[in-house]
Amino acid sequence: MSAIVEAEALGRWYGEVVGLGDLTVSIEPGITGLVGPNGAGKSTFMKLMVGELRPHRGSITVLGHRPFGSRPLYRRLGFCPQQDALYEHQSGRAFVRDIMRLAGFPRKEADRRAVAAMERVGLAEAMDRKVSDYSKGMRQRTRLAQAVAHDPEIIVADEPLTGLDPIARRQTLELFRALANDGKSVILSSHVLHEVESLTDTMVLIHRGRLLAQGNVRDVRRLINKHPSRVHLKARDPRGLASRLLDEPYVNAVSLSGDGEGLLVETLDVGTFHQRFAAVAGEADAGVRSLVSDDASLEAVFDYLVG
Question: Which of 62, 70, 117, 257 could form a disulfide with 262 if both were Cys (CB 3.0 to 4.6 A apart)?
Fold first, then answer.
């Protein structure tokens, strides 16, 4: 299976700020999650992928084309940017239709494609309303509609699930799965690991503009499990809870915070911790008020992997 994206020693910077440092990666067909903390370089990589930016060093090819200035590639590529740049006076349908006109489709065909794309993203009833009346999630889905309306081979989506309510999020994930079932390739970015995990097993992890890891979710989880997971707790009696938790064999360390009610737990077996915690907290009668696991944050994943 040949790669759809090939980057070699790819670099791009903005003045003294490095967007990408030295990225070498190969992406195969299918659905690929591009993940990393905010500021990792995901958006810069995507803009290089779709030809919005020219590399300062190294090279990148998409479907065998160098993206910058490649009109043949643009016909085969769809891009849903993170930026909310829509024309407020237009309807969603008109916006997508005009994008199709700019892509070279005749007016009738452009309108037909706009209608089909708006229906596909779940905006059939709202397509003729002004964009200025759309919610954040509806605006995001309109950007998705213009990315898929010309039936591209690859769809590149920058944080496409941001701002969507649960129903719209599910519809968007189903759209990506349907596109993959139709033989399309999807590359989407996110800083939330479980969002990508619910859609694909294949991911590329970027940290500080470089490739940190590439593979499936299981590989990433195995890397994470070699390092302690952190769980932040708040309780009425944090000292009593800390004492009880230290008796558990899967707990490595417990430390108290300065606010008098918080504690930080480190464990090498976060699954067992969550299975046992309710019983342990009940025995301690500590009055637990909140529990937050760092594993829910992709920032923590990268802390583990680079630490």
Answer: 257
